[in-house]
Design brief:
The protein is α/β, with parallel strands linked by helices and 179 residues long. The chain has helices at residues 7-35, 66-69, 84-97, 156-169, 174-178, and strands at residues 48-49, 73-78, 105-110, 120-123, 137-140, 146-150. Strands 1-6-5-2-3-4 form a 6-stranded mixed beta sheet, with helices on one face. It starts with 6 loop residues before the first helix and ends with a helix. This is Transmembrane protein.
C-alpha cells in the first residue's frame, strides 16, 4: 500500500509522524500536570505553592511582633471563630509531630481572642486583610515569604508531609545548630 502512495503523500506522512513524535510527549506531560495523573504523591504539595501574598513583615499585625524578627519557619493560621480551640489544637499536634524539627517552626495564631497555647505566639490583626479567611493556614520561610497556603479544613497529615519535606530540603545552617 505504501508503494502506491505518491511522493507528496509519503512526505506528508513522514512530517506528521515527526510532529507526533515530538508533540506526543508534550501532550502527555500536559495531561499529567493538569489532571494529576501518574504523578507520585510524594511529589505533590497538598497546599497552594508560592501564593501571591505579601511577606510576613507587611501583614497588618499589632507591633511589636517577635515572629517577624525571628529566623525560624512560621506556621501561621487565622483563628478567630468559635472553633478556634479545635483548630489551635490540631496545629499544636502537628507541631509536636515534627519531632526534633519542631524547634525550627513557630506557630503564629492570627486574630486570636483566647490566650495562646504553650509554644505559640498570638498575632492579633490590626485589620483582617481581604486575602485572609477564617481557618486558613500559611507556611512561611525564615525570610518572611509565604511558601505554602492551605484552605480551611485542610487535613493535618497532608500539611505535615509538606512541612517535613520543606524542612528536610532546607536544613538548619551549621552555625545555628551548634549554638
Amino acid at each position: 500500500m505504501i508503494g502506491r502512495l505518491s511522493s507528496d503523500t509519503r512526505q506528508r506522512l513522514k512530517l506528521l509522524a515527526l510532529i507526533a513524535l515530538f508533540a506526543g510527549p508534550m501532550l502527555v506531560a500536559w495531561i499529567m500536570v493538569e489532571w494529576r495523573v501518574g504523578i507520585p504523591d510524594e511529589r505533590v504539595a497538598h497546599g497552594e505553592l508560592m501564593p501571591s501574598l505579601p511577606p510576613l513583615a507587611q501583614w497588618p499585625l499589632e507591633k511589636p511582633n517577635p515572629v517577624v524578627e525571628s529566623d525560624d519557619w512560621v506556621l501561621a493560621y487565622a483563628c478567630d471563630g468559635d472553633d478556634c480551640e479545635v483548630v489551635a489544637d490540631r496545629w499544636w499536634r502537628l507541631h509536636r509531630a515534627l519531632g526534633k524539627d519542631a524547634t525550627r517552626v513557630i506557630r503564629l495564631r492570627l486574630g486570636a481572642r483566647e490566650a495562646p497555647l504553650p509554644g505559640e505566639v498570638a498575632g492579633p490583626w490590626l485589620q483582617r486583610p481581604d486575602w485572609s479567611d477564617e481557618g486558613e493556614l500559611w507556611f512561611i520561610d525564615p525570610e518572611g515569604r509565604v511558601v505554602l497556603a492551605y484552605e480551611a479544613g485542610q487535613k493535618a497529615d497532608g500539611v505535615l508531609d509538606d512541612v517535613k519535606r520543606l524542612l528536610k530540603m532546607n536544613p538548619e545552617p551549621a552555625l545555628a545548630s551548634r549554638e
